[in-house]
Amino acid sequence: MTATTTGRRSLKRRLAAGERLYGALLRLPSETLVEMAGVAGLDYVVIDCEHGPADMTVLQHHLTAAAAQGIDVLVRVGTAEPALALRCLDLGAAGIIHPHIDSAADARRAVAADRYPPLGERGFATYSRAGRFGTVTAAEHLAAAEETLVVAMIETARACAAAAGIAATEGVDAILVGPADLAVDCGFPGKDALDRLIAAAHGAAHDAGRAVVSIVPDTAGARAAEQAGAQLVLYNMAQVLMDTFRTLATPRTEAAQHHS
Question: Residue 254 pLDDT > 70, yes or no?
Answer without folding.
Answer: no
